Amino acid sequence: MPNILYLDDTGVAILKTLIGEPTDEQVTAAVNTVLAAHPEWTTTVQDGSITGLKIANDTIPDAKLAQTGGVLERVNSFTSAQDVNLFNANDPDVLPLSLIDGYGNITTVDYMRVSGYIPIEPNVTYEVPIYVGKIGTSARAIPIYDANKNHIQRLVGEYDETTKRLTFTSTNSAAAYTRVNFPERGQRALYYTPWHYYGIFMLTEAPFPDRYYTYGAKKIITDTAYLPESRENDYNPLIAKTALFYGDSICYGDDYDGWAGRIGRDNRMTWENMGISGATFHKNSITGCIVEQPIPFDQPDYIILEGGTNDADRIGNATGETKPAAFGTWSYTYWGTDDASNNYGFDITTFCGAFEYMLKRVTTLYPGVKLGYIVAQKMGRTNDYRPTVNNRRYYFQTAMEICEKWGVPHLNLWDGCYLNPSNPSMYNSDAQGDPAYCYIDGQHLTAKGYDYIKPLIESWMRTL
After folding, report:
1. 340 — phi, psi (to 5°)?
2. pLDDT tens-place string over residues 18-27
């Protein structure tokens, strides 16, 4: 019998068991079973529905048996607040570049943010990542507020040295809110565990879940992920997986973490956007280097690469027969060495060497990982985006050919989507940053641009 688990419009988890149209005898037997197990119930059965259902000697609370349109539905509602991520990164009360202490005092720092007012209840235990290594032991103290958001308590919680998380319970009957510190984007020195990352920070009732949930989303109660109702009949290989996204400013994205954040949140992945503005693949002394970025998850399910634009701009024109030395060379016959300490035999000071090194590194250290490379959308206003004349497109072409050598799938957005800054409907140089357009400046995308490009990447990732 097929089961369908989804969220209804109010966020309640619904489990449907489709077993065909029940007979009158089956309905009667089900009612008698429930009433025999709970003689204290005085529920009158109307329209084939009852509250409370006993299955296999386990009572499932808040359940009902309903005969609807010839389908018998077993509907389990999990509505307790203990199943919800209470932290909202987009709360209007979030304070950037700030740090809060247990007394509610706020100071200016360059590495943390202060959350908005997070609703809590008295005598309920909560769990949240904290940053003792950076802030000190004072991080164990959090402020508690009443319903009017007046500070009423400095609460010191219990710190777990292994998980780097704080468990706290306020016994103050007036407790209604708390505020916590979480990192600014890109502050990776603060990240002890995946849960300490900017993109997947959570505060929930204890015990802490083992995977990420967006603000207001439920924890998984069984091993089956909750799917939005619109996807209840879909098979989604991205749900609850781990993913790392590497790249430059196009990957780093906007305030919503670009495509990485949109895909990670919508699919409840444990994810991190490792993008760095200005980053290149090849090692240089000016900007960040993609190949020198850590791989923080022990065994990620997905590693998605993007980049090459800054390599093309910094190294120079490689479209001619004579190419800059830092462009490098590659061949179909050279597969590097086993010496990881020597970059597996690749010259990471060149674009070609660094790109091959990254593919060698990932496929060697993480066999079976779903690895892919994204060619970013068209950038720069020009009349010719072909690889024979457009230097950036030539670097992308080289990267795609190297991917084909290594058997790494690639998604070519440059040629494969309609984003084009030369199209006046997508970019207006007199209105840079206007959210009505897809480009901010002819290169970087607005939220509208990322909203368009996200499902293209998401659909491609499902094929890896």
Report:
1. -65, -30
2. 445 555 665 5
Report the predicted TM-score, pTM, of the whole model to 2 decimal places. 0.70
pLDDT average, residue stretch 273-283? 93
Distance CA 44, CA 18 (A): 24
Choose among 409, 405, 408, 442: nearest CA to 427.
442
CATH architecture of 231-461: 3-Layer(aba) Sandwich (3.40)
Given a cut of 90, whether residue 339 has pLDDT beyond it is yes
| Torsion angles phi and psi, residue 31, rounded to 5 | -65, -45
- Average pLDDT of the chain, as a whole number: 82
Instruction: Give the 3-state secondary structure of residue 268.
Output: coil
pLDDT of residue 235: 63
User: Tell me, what DSSP letter sits at residue 423?
Assistant: S
DSSP state of 420: -
C-alpha span between 192 and 397 (Å, rounded): 37
Q: What letter represents residue 255's amino acid?
A: D
User: Where exactly does CATH 3.40.50.1110 map onto the chain?
Assistant: 231-461
Read off the pLDDT band of 15 (50, 70, 90).
low
Report residue 222's pLDDT band, with 50, 70 and 90 as the boundaries: very low
Three-state DSSP at 73 gives strand
- Rounded CA gap, 48 and 50, in Å? 7
Residue among 198, 183, 172 at smallest CA distance from 139: 183
What is the per-residue DSSP string for 138-163? Answer: GGGEEEEE-TT--EEEEEE-EEETTT
